[in-house]
Design goal:
This protein has 228 residues and is of the alpha/beta class. It is built from 3 helices and 12 strands, in the order βαβββββαβββββαβ. It has a single domain, classed as BirA Bifunctional Protein, domain 2 (2-Layer Sandwich). The strands form 2 sheets. Strands 1, 2, 6, 7, 8, 9, 10, 11 and 12 form a 9-stranded mixed sheet that branches. It has a 3-stranded mixed sheet with strand order 4-3-5, with no helix packed on it. The two termini are 28 Å apart.
Length: 228
């Protein structure tokens, strides 16, 4: 169990925990996030952790390079407005969008990103997967010595945007997506490492099992939740 510092809310108000059972189109998710962030910044709604899956698609962050979209016709492409470069979303990947008020969580974006990485690492540990952070590479990585010296695969991507100290976007964790869908991009602009998933690593788990572990570790790092 990680002993890293937490970034609990100063008032311990619970974060709403919502799971969408059907695939959510990306423009719909983006519109809802923007609306919720605006209302949260005005104090009209509470914090939200929204768990969902998207149809197969690519999203471009604010640092995305055109050359990293290697097959523009493979899947729909959307501008995300978050930090980072190109990434993939699709069925079998758990997306966790975090709309949190960082004014109540220390106003430290770096600490927030580290806490998201730790959430993933601790969740992976519950399934006997060793995830690690890397300086200069946001996300969570798994060593793959069977692929060669110093080879690693990314199992979770992190991209965030902060507006008026309210966060949105968040985390994507590969449970059992079609990894061949990554072939149309250079994921996060990194050419010398690959991508992996629970299934690819031989760890079989269901989405509800992953969600349960995520919620348990979220509450330990970020504070209490209430299901909506």
């Amino acid at each position: 169990m990680s002993q890293n510092p937490t970034i609990m809310r100063d008032d311990q108000r619970p974060t709403h925990w919502e799971i969408s059972d059907k695939l959510v189109e990306y423009p719909e998710a983006l519109a809802r996030m923007k609306d919720h962030v605006d209302r949260l910044a005005r104090g009209e709604v509470g914090e939200l952790a929204w768990l969902l899956e998207h149809p197969p698609l690519y999203t471009a962050g604010t640092s995305a390079k055109a050359a990293d979209l290697t097959d523009p016709n493979a899947l729909p492409v959307f501008n995300a407005g978050r930090g980072g470069q190109y990434t993939y979303h699709g069925p079998g990947q758990r997306v966790v969008y975090l709309m949190l008020d960082l004014k109540h969580r220390g106003r430290d974006v770096r600490a927030f990103v580290r806490a998201m990485e730790q959430l993933v690492i601790d969740t992976l540990a519950d399934f006997n997967i060793v995830g690690e952070q890397r300086d200069g590479r946001v996300g969570v990585w798994v060593k793959r010595p069977e692929k060669g010296f110093n080879k690693e695969d990314k199992i979770a991507a992190i991209g965030v945007r902060v507006s008026r100290w309210v966060s949105f976007h968040g985390i994507s964790i590969n449970l059992n997506p079609d990894l061949s869908d990554y072939d149309g991009i250079v994921p996060c602009g990194i050419t010398d490492q690959g991508v992996t998933s629970f299934e690819d690593l031989g760890q079989l788990a269901s989405m509800p099992e992953l969600d349960s572990a995520l919620r348990r570790n979220f509450e330990r790092i970020f504070g209490p939740t209430v299901r909506v």
